[in-house]
Amino acid sequence: MNNSDENRRNLIDINRKVEDEIAAYKREKWIDLCGRLDPRKDYHHWRVINVLNNRCNQQNNGPTSNAITSGGYSSTTDRQTANLLAQHYEQASRLSFSREDRKQKKIYRQVLNQSKSYNQRDDFSNDITLEELDSVIRSLDPKRSLLVSTSSSVQ
After folding, report:
1. CA-CA distance, 34 to 38, in Å (whole number)?
2. For a FRET experiment, which of 8, 81, 125, 129 has its CA 20 to 30 Å from that of 138?
């Protein structure tokens, strides 16, 4: 009586309903998680992608429930979900620069390149005579700061 076909069918139906409820709950939680991700904070996206990537590498193709769609395409695995998130982040993080921004960038780049070739006068490579050193030491006031006295004596 316990192994009747009717009981088996009932058990299969109950199992299917439970799996559907679990999948719906997971989908609801996933939608909630995706809704809470801040597009300005990329570390949230990368953390989710890393977690999903680690789960894909660890689990053995178990049942998954994903609620991410892109262009009518629904992801079926965590890896596909991570790829869709990566594509979304790549598109969302592209910045559109105006003509003024590009002009500023060019000016900044020129300034940086010019500063690389700037030759500052190196006072420490010049030879100092013993008389000059002696004169500077005698002009130092031990009661004053060394920094103040050297700046006044160098002038």
Report:
1. 9
2. 125
Q: What pLDDT digit, counting tens, does each position of 23-71 carry?
A: 999 989 888 887 777 777 777 777 777 777 776 665 555 555 566 777 7
Start-end of H helices in 37-145? 42-58, 78-92, 99-116, 130-139
> Which of 17, 29, 33, 37 lies closest to 65 in space, CA to CA?
29
Length of the chain: 155
**Amino acid (1-letter code) at residue 99:** R
3-class DSSP assignment, residue 38: coil
In whole angstroms, what is the distance from residue 85 CA to residue 95 CA?
Answer: 18
Q: Which residues pair with 73 in a beta bridge?
A: 70
Which residues fall within 8 angstroms of residue 44, CB to CB, at 6 or more apart? 37, 38
Q: What is the pTM of this model?
A: 0.30
Containing 19, the helix (H) or strand (E) segment is helix 5-36
Query: Rounded to an integer, what distance in angstroms lies between the CA atom of residue 60 and that of residue 63?
Result: 9
Return the residue matching tokens 């992608």: 49
